[in-house]
Sequence to fold (196 residues):
Amino acid sequence: MSEIKSLAAPKASFDRRAVVKGAAWSVPVIAAAIAAPAASASHTGTPTAAFDILTTGLSYAATVIGAPIRNGSAPSGIIIGSVEEVAVNDKVQVKIDITAKQRTLKQPAVRVIGVTPGAGVVVTSALFNSNGFDSSTTFTYGGGMDHSDFRTFKFSYDHNGKKNEAVGGDYNMKMTVTFPNRAPFVVASQQLASIV
Fold:
């Protein structure tokens, strides 16, 4: 006679200690899996910055009443690039120093007076130095940046020359950029600006 096999499922036997031990190991794995995207969102590298295209025939507005508008050349602005996300309201700080090369008595100082676009930009200071030859302008940008994102800022300039000053000259420009949680870095260029 043929043997009839039972189709009933075999009885499962659970060891409670094995179940608890398995659950204890799975919790750290799940926690690590949840934490992984945040860690992978971190990017390494160095942010970038550069002076934008040199513009000739640029107008330098006069700060002294009766002084003429002067013409010359200077970068149209700057371009900065991030390597990681910069949250909205986290400030990127930019300082532009302009130094007169000839330093003659009648050579006016020039400075960056305006930065566009204005969204997220605050010019915190735009000063002619007390020596009469140099200037320093600082602004912050808090509009946020994505990973590997670039922002272009356009400049307008003015000068502190007096009415009878006709001597032009050349100027060196230096840019110091500080991204959140990063050390400042400097971009310096020789004779990037001139005035006639």
Helices lie at 16-40. The two ends are 117 Å apart (CA to CA).
